[in-house]
Amino acid sequence: MEDLPVPQNIKISNITCDSFKICWDMDSRSKERITHYFIDLNKKETKNANKFKHKDVPTKLVAKAVPLPMTVRGHWFLSPRTEYTVAVQTASKQGDGDYAVSEWSEIIEFCTGDYSTVHLTQLMEKAEVIAGRMLRFSVFYRNQHKEYFDHAREAQNNKMLLSVKDNSGSHGSPISGKLEGIFFSCNTEFNTGKPPQDSPYGRYRFQLPAEELFSPKTNLYFADFYCMYTAYHYVILVIAPKGSSGDEFCKQRLPALDIANNHFLTCSEDEDGRLVFHHAQDLILEVIYTDPVDLSLGTVAEISGHLMSLSTVNAKKDPSCKTCNISVGR
């Protein structure tokens, strides 16, 4: 019996965080005998990840022979922003239930994508469930070491400049390693209504009126929801001046929020036309502002509390938490 054709020129397309399309060329001889495709999908570990693969090794995916390209979607093995190797063989199911198979194809590498706005909306809806009531606040603040603010004054024309978002939070977050901004906090203590005196980021705090960063002249976006193996949950929001490069970046990738009516952070007008600000009580909000900020807009002072150890810099999300994970990847 003639050998089954080996898939050639494998092409991967339409890659998302949990799906991809795959197609290949095949010799037309014996093509009508093909009943199934075996797809071997592995997380990439080394350049020789599939070096010892041969046709007797069990495969992870068995699919009926369908017209190409074929979509692989929602497989438990697929996670966002992860490198994979894939190889294919053709198969013919025999009368005894066994399969005749071709040789394995060449090995192709690809990387899955970020969360889409659909996935981020699912995360946002989970965050809304535990956001709690809204508390009033009046300032945004940023803690750093004294040297950070000295450098801003002396070498950066008195401005805090943008830096690229680190890899903390959800693995599929589209802002990690891409969006430039400045992190601020706005959470207040329940009993005082003021910012806490402790911080994991430094003993010096820059504080400025909330309206300097957040107003009808800015857009607000939901970016992430995560925890770090603790009871605390974090939501990352992005404030971007309308029409700025940060705003254009977020507009294409993140769910937009109504600044006056959402579960996390609001800016609205009171009866006298003054801006009033509220934040969610039961979440720790991390707010990214996407433009440089002049230190003259606020004040820098030393805090009286302790330097806490719970920093979120490059912190990994707990993949087992049912509160803040969605079913697609991690």
Description:
Residues 6-115 form the Fibronectin type-III domain. InterPro entries: FN3_dom (IPR003961), FN3_sf (IPR036116), Ig-like_fold (IPR013783), PHYHIP/PHYHIPL (IPR042868), PHYIP/PHIPL_C (IPR045545). The protein has 2 domains: 8-112, Immunoglobulins (Immunoglobulin-like), CATH 2.60.40.10; 117-302, no CATH class. A hairpin with a 5-residue loop joins strand 6 and strand 7 (99-101). The strands form 6 sheets. A 6-stranded mixed sheet has the order 12-13-20-16-15-17. Strands 3, 4, 6, 7 and 8 form a 5-stranded antiparallel sheet that branches. 32% of the residues are buried. It has 330 residues and is mainly beta. The longest helix has 14 residues, at 117-130. The chain has helices at 117-130, 146-155, 245-253; strands at 8-13, 19-25, 36-43, 61-64, 70-73, 83-93, 99-101, 108-111, 134-137, 139-144, 159-160, 163-164, 180-184, 204-209, 218-227, 233-241, 256-257, 265-269, 275-280, 284-289, 293-294, 299-302. It has 3 helices and 22 strands.
